[in-house]
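Board notes (copied after class):
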Amino acid sequence: MAGPAALVVPALKKHTATVIMAHGLGDSGAGWVSLAENWRRRGRFEEVSFIFPNAPSIPITVNFGMKMPGWYDITTFNELAQAHDEPGILRSREYFNSLISKELEKGIPSSRIVLGGFSQGGAISIFSGVTCPHKLGGIFGLSCYLLMQGKIRDLVPKENPNKETLIFMGHGDQDPLVKYEWGTRTAEILKEWGWKVDFRTYRGLVHSADPKEIDDLEKYLQERLPAMGDSAQSGL
């Protein structure tokens, strides 16, 4: 089941990198476009194309079965880190892999593609990122948690191409919805399994993004996707 077409903020200069940013439950890609627009106004990431996908409208159990944009169903908020709609998660992973494949077809190296998101979008991004068959430039998750904890390692490719890919995570310590301890535990588990995680805590932050968090994300993206400048223009 496909959602509305993704929103794209194209690169201003030669397209050398792509950031895919997944929204949370009930939101849309339009809800995060301002992130790219703000960076554009400040002259940041001019070689980067930003893709803001839209989740399909699906029945959500915690919404009394009514439809809303979601990457997978959520059956309870009480045990959000355990209540997993595996078919929905796997369908969404396939969709994100297809977005990555389309960027590869455009000639963008996988090492210049970053996948991330907020809340449910962050959870599916981390899940899709660590199980991706391609070496990504980065993976990030804001206010999120680990999906399919008991099965995710079985879905990681044998060569584990993203074992050395730094994962950025940010979480507010006052988040009443996606509990802070779910975020910290996700980071701990990923580290225990051998992945590299930069986990940042934002004091007093509820289930939202924070200006300092966005600044930290910007720095992370600058490190993962440095401008290629003249080498990009010459095609090197």
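Comment from the instructor: Strands lie at 7-9, 17-22, 48-52, 57-59, 67-69, 113-118, 138-142, 167-172, 197-202. The longest strand covers residues 17-22.
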